[in-house]
# Entry
Amino acid sequence: MALQSLDIIRRSATTTPAPEVRGSYTGTVAKLIDTSKCIGCKACQVACMEWNDLRDEVGSNTGSYQNPADLSDQSWTLMRFAEYENPKGDLEWLIRKDGCMHCADPGCLKACPAPGAIVQYANGIVDFQEENCIGCGYCVTACPFDIPRISKRDHKAYKCTLCSDRVAVGLEPACIKACPTGALVFGTKEDMQEHAAERVADLKSRGFDQAGLYDPAGVGGTHVMYVLHHADQPALYSGLAPDPHISAMVSLWKGASKPVALAAMALTALVGFFHFVRVGRNEVGAADEAAAEKHS
Amino acid sequence: MSDSDRRGSLVRYTAELRTNHWLTALGFVFAALSGLALFHPALFWLSNLFGGGPWTRILHPFIGLFAVLIFLLLAAALWGDNRLSPADWRWLKQWRDVVNNREDRLPEVGRYNGGQKLLFLVLVIGMVGLLLSGLVIWRAYFSLYFPAGLIRLASLVHAVCAFALICAILVHIYAGLWVKGSVDAIVRGTVTPGWAWKHHRAWYRQLTHDAHPRSGPN
# Structure
């Protein structure tokens, strides 16, 4: 069982159970990102680069501190900077660490056509196994958060792994380790929800009446959660989805249509075969040739 | 009866049309097999025919593009003979007579019958649908120009069109095997006068009485 995790609860394009004998008896894991404590230092971005040996291209300034401008195959996490003028006329600098949310119901995994290219571990982490990736981009199509990126170099899909390699040996993700303010914390999902509740109560006592936890139910909850000062308006945070869910198009395309269409195609071929058996061929007889001769 | 008599004396398809048809067929079969590999996990093994998953992903859109473009040439050549007329709808309504080989009860048929024309219509719509949706979901070159919602819609449209086309082509292949002499027509190009008389009488009358065409039902 060398280098097997044996705790795979879901495996893309696979209709039989994956090796899942190991459970997650201490609970699933979660990363909590407290936007109210984030100072935008990008230590998390640097730690991610360092641990994962990634180096994005040095881009150009696009008018804010946000750099690079977007996630890429080399940037699995990114601080997004938004300037928001609140109703009182004050400026709020809303900084959100973007990256894979590790959905409990992952759209990427649902859409992936390559067996084992995307897996979900018992601890909740959704991981890409790039060796099995064929580069079709269906994960990009289906992701409600627009996270996966296809590398232009090897045409494989990449995203945050939640440091599955570190977590597997009892370490916290690299970004958590680097965060200087405690805006990033990591633990069981239950503990993170409790911690978030304390943070939300604190924010409310400081006048942020709409403070709350972002753990969207539309995707079954996520294993990366946000504490937001404005939980009623997630879109303020550089377009965080207010109600993320797997699109109905994707559900239809990758849900019922698959077995139904396969059965219908097989049935069509079978109907042909049995028509042949029961009715038989439509053949031209001597009478037809004679009639044709007469009319020519 | 000599071999050439049996093969028939009436030209139904020229060498150009036959080549065009079989290039379309090859393209369609390979596009369908590589597409099915990506449609359902139970068929992912088909990707082995194309050199594995990544090669299937790389080749499928090019094969599909080839199949559609060569099909459009074929469709342009056959367009005029495939317009559905009221007589074709009567023919289609009598589908029970069709599938039970009771051809004598059906309206006289021209170069193509109602079923063939309906297939032609489904193929044209399906192929254009596959082409347009396929470009939108072609991640390597074109997806970056389209919003996520449209890519999701195109993914569904692509699957639905491919499903309809595969079913239609299965019917088409079976019909060719069922109506004896049709395979010869599309492989070697000719049919016997009796074949034309039995299956496409109005076309036969037109061929043999070109100088004084009789009015057929379509």
Chain A touches chain B through 51 residues (CB under 8 Å). Chain A has a mean pLDDT of 96.
